[in-house]
Amino acid sequence: MEKISRTKVIDLLTREDFGALVNVKGWVRTRRGSKQINFIALNDGSTINNVQIVVDLANFDEEMLKLVTTGACLSVNGILTESVGSGQRAEVQAQEINVLGACDNTYPLQKKGHSLEFLREMAHLRPRTNTFGAVFRIRHNMAIAIHTFFHERGFFYFHTPLITASDCEGAGQMFQVTTLNLYDLKKDESGSITYEDDFFGKQASLTVSGQLEGELAAMSLGAIYTFGPTFRAENSNTPRHLAEFWMIEPEVAFNEIEDNMQLAEDFIKYCLQWALDNCRDDIQFLNDMFDKELIDRLNSVLSDSFIRLSYTEGIKILEEAVAAGHKFEFPIYWGADLASEHERYLVEDHFKCPVILTDYPKEIKSFYMKQNDDGKTV
Amino acid sequence: MEKISRTKVIDLLTREDFGALVNVKGWVRTRRGSKQINFIALNDGSTINNVQIVVDLANFDEEMLKLVTTGACLSVNGILTESVGSGQRAEVQAQEINVLGACDNTYPLQKKGHSLEFLREMAHLRPRTNTFGAVFRIRHNMAIAIHTFFHERGFFYFHTPLITASDCEGAGQMFQVTTLNLYDLKKDESGSITYEDDFFGKQASLTVSGQLEGELAAMSLGAIYTFGPTFRAENSNTPRHLAEFWMIEPEVAFNEIEDNMQLAEDFIKYCLQWALDNCRDDIQFLNDMFDKELIDRLNSVLSDSFIRLSYTEGIKILEEAVAAGHKFEFPIYWGADLASEHERYLVEDHFKCPVILTDYPKEIKSFYMKQNDDGKTV
């Protein structure tokens, strides 16, 4: 096979030098056609879009073509051609096809759509689906947006330690980290497990937050952000809880609460705009397949200023809703923490806009939050 | 105090609108001067450089000035002035000084230099030193360079899971992750600890690599990189081993070994160039204080092409060195893995240039490495 430098599908689909000899590599999504001409939809993950490979069957070996099935991995040399029917601007008239990896008919990702539950059982293959491909490409772009946003504003990316000896005693929600042989745990006279022989010479666990280190760094470098894995050993199966997730924590010296609120709003809008600018095809796919209001909602968050509201004002709105007949599962009153249903009422029903709630009762917030002059809120 | 929008020191030092009223906030590094005029070196972490605050003592309250000591946190309003003596282009003639945080004389970071051993005992304060500030600013810039390099080349940033159930059995070098109560471990009939009640329902540990997931992602998305924390429970106190560190793993579909070597060389050069372009003051500090050849060495890596050499050729050079009288601690022969001293001889003594060694004996490399036609090397 003639060696031609590979072009990624995302680049191929915007090239206009029709007639050029190109090479494209990827995985077969579908193959269809007549007895004379076949059309192969080839995807290489660089974009959700496939490039159409047009195959004049008379020019190719029949045994080779039998291997061109869904999931097979191909290298194709051919002529870049203006397309009329593929839904894309460009397609490739195949001249040489090399099957780099064949794929028999037990390959589970056939043409039909698959449920997320089905795909959960094949985590090794699901990145090849449109849905997971879209999610991963968007997640990548959000990570780049996050770094770009903070870097452009003079924040330093700070890596806080994940294994910690802080707050190990009695922290039931943390994962313990150990190299001890659990079959041979040593105990002291009082019956307590001794950790002298453990890796760090003391009890250790996975941190639930880099905040403390982040604050120290901000008090030195001025403005930092963390962006890394975080762990919570909460045994709850809700869409809001993960045992392992990536969290962003900015810490800024000399910021007032107004600065923090502006930073949060600017940050979210920056990331949304980045997604719309750089992941349009992937977001359109999610909009079409999962959530018909997705793009409208993203645009609406971008267009409005976030509502900034005190907790006390928020409670008043919620109490008025109850008085007007709105039913909440959990009771709401001044002093209560807001449940998800209350937050959603304020955001989705009342304001139809993102809301920043401030000045919470000190009793339901952390000890280190700055207390207001009223002595009651933070 | 009049409210003026804060200017970071890094921006202040390049401003040329002398005469402007500015606000600067930061921490006092030193204070010196006469009975009439004091000079405060103020640092806010945005740069290794301090801004000089010029204080006409007659204009300020004596009790307030007593609080302006090394480590104190200040907000200063003043006039931006062209500097003649501070080593910087601009300084600030103080008009108002507000001590945001005082600092008594037990503050351990006084003017004199401190050893790294001393600073190790005060991890909460050492980010305020020139050395750690420089390292953290450079580390931030390297992270941004890494993301920019891969993003510009169409790689997707991929977050691989850190908690894993793979390879738990007998992996002595991994950290076990558990929520089991170690005082009440359940065992089955054969005496084995049962993990049904552990968080994931099976034995889990911290991964030593995201490579497997990364390869799956590359086989879908085309080109990915990981960049995240990695854990090794190796109990060795060498400068080469850390229990927790951040690792980069690119995985690319369709790459040949030549492509991989070019990627590695381009990547390293891109990061070095970024450091020289964006961290010049911090690198100059490290050059002056720790390693007088640092900048020369970085430039030399940038200017030369990396040597690409087979293991067999490398062994030949090392054997010739031994024959010529060079002493190594560990014996060297075809089939032996290279020790650090051998690698350093090739890089520092023989080639004086980075070296990529390929085609190792299959016995000393992982099972999944692609075997060469000779049947002996990979």
From TrEMBL, chains A, B:
It is an enzyme of class 6 (ligase). Its EC number is 6.1.1.22. PROSITE patterns: AA_TRNA_LIGASE_II (PS50862). One of its GO terms (molecular function) is nucleic acid binding. Keywords: Aminoacyl-tRNA synthetase, ATP-binding, Ligase, Nucleotide-binding, Protein biosynthesis. Residues 136-378 form the Aminoacyl-transfer RNA synthetases class-II family profile domain. CDD domains: EcAsnRS_like_N. InterPro entries: Aa-tRNA-synt_II, aa-tRNA-synth_II, aa-tRNA-synth_II/BPL/LPL, Asn-tRNA-ligase, NA-bd_OB-fold, NA-bd_OB_tRNA. One of its GO terms (biological process) is asparaginyl-tRNA aminoacylation. Gene3D superfamilies: Bira Bifunctional Protein, Domain 2 (3.30.930.10), Nucleic acid-binding proteins (2.40.50.140). Belongs to the class-II aminoacyl-tRNA synthetase family. NCBIfam families: asnS (TIGR00457), PRK03932.1 (NF003037). This is asparagine--tRNA ligase. It comes from termite gut metagenome.
